[in-house]
Amino acid sequence: MSAKILDGKKLSSQIKLKIFEEIKELKLKNITPGLAVIIVGEDKASKIYVRNKEKACQEVGIVSQKFELPETTSENEILELIKKLNTKEDIHGILVQLPLPKHIDENKIINLISKNKDVDGFHPYNLGNIMIGRESFVSCTPQGILELIKSENIAIAGKECVIVGSSNIVGKPMAMMMINNNATVTVCNIFTKDLESHCRRADILIVAVGKEKLITASMVKKGAVVIDVGINKNKDGHICRDVDFESVSKIAGYITPVPGGVGPMTIAILLQNTVLSAKEFYKF
Predict the structure, then answer these.
(1) What distance in Å separates the CA atoms of residue 202 and residue 222, rounded to the nearest whole number?
(2) Does residue 163 share a domain with residue 57?
(3) Does a structural domain hold residue 234?
């Protein structure tokens, strides 16, 4: 029996439709949410991600302003741009597309974004709120994963959740959000000994490391929920996953496809956060 597909594309479309209706109501009160996107350099993957975010903004009625900067842009130039955007009343969300060129300190950039416009949920203030269970702007990918799981009425409380990957963008906030939903959480990384034994315990297995087919069928508990965040290109240039979909889908109860799983949900939550920011700004 094959696993049920957790269709992020379908669910994100439903979320975007609700956002579209919400923005229609806001526009009647002369409120139009605005998102500023900063991209530095010529990274092809980053350009694709930004294009997808722009398209999603257009679909729901968010005004998107893109700032494309050359690879040689200095750190100070980006900081000055963020300072200006922090004060603009028509900009309610600021997104800096990662990764940035090596000469730029990502933490310094993220920390300068106003916590009230941090629609990516990367600012230490917003990450700290997740820690104490007082979530405001939540990290988009972890929240998207939660929405996917909950859309199938999958119980989280009391379940064993194993997260493979401990980044600030996915792994760490995901762990706290699952704890806030009363799961028992184990976080693994590239140094974890006997990764297979940890993964086999998981009722919910979330993988975000960027390593092709790291998770195989022998590492998955029968009936488990398997969330694959990884989207990579192999040496032949083909899109590949962290999870060996073909074998794991025969064991798991639920599984996300790549593409079409977590990716569309990340963008949907970004839109949601931008609308939330606009509403909070106007005390709506």
Answers:
(1) 10
(2) no
(3) yes
- Is the same domain home to 48 and 97? yes
Check if 222 is active-site. Answer: no
- The residues, any chain, with a CB within 8 Å of residue 28's CB and separated by 6 or more, are none
> Against a cut of 0.90, is the pTM above it?
yes
Q: Which of 16, 53, 117, 221 is catalytic?
A: 53
The reply to whether 53 belongs to the active site is yes
- The residue to which tokens 């700004």 are assigned: 281
User: For residue 19, is it within any domain?
Assistant: no
In a domain, 147, yes or no: yes
Q: Which of 97, 118, 228, 272 is catalytic?
A: 97
Give pLDDT tens digits along the chain (284 positions).
Answer: 699 999 999 999 999 999 999 999 999 999 999 999 999 999 888 898 999 999 999 999 999 999 999 999 999 999 999 999 999 999 999 999 999 999 999 999 999 999 999 999 999 999 999 999 887 889 999 999 999 999 999 999 999 999 999 999 999 999 999 999 999 999 999 899 999 999 999 999 999 998 889 999 999 999 999 999 987 766 776 777 899 999 999 999 999 998 899 999 999 999 999 999 999 998 87
Residue 177 domain-assigned (yes or no): yes
Give the span between the Cα atoms of 126 and 113, in whole angstroms.
11
Q: Within a 10 A sphere around the Cβ of 99, how many other Cβ atoms?
A: 12
Query: Does residue 223 share a domain with residue 145?
Result: yes
Residues 6+ apart with CB under 8 A from 180: 130, 133, 135
For residue 236, the enclosing domain spans 140-262
Considering 16, 117, 118, 120, which one is annotated as catalytic? 120
Angle at 210 between CA 186 and CA 254, to 5 degrees: 60
Please state, in angstroms and rounded to a whole number, the distance separating the CA atoms of residues 211 and 76. 34
Which one of 58, 80, 114 terminates a domain?
114
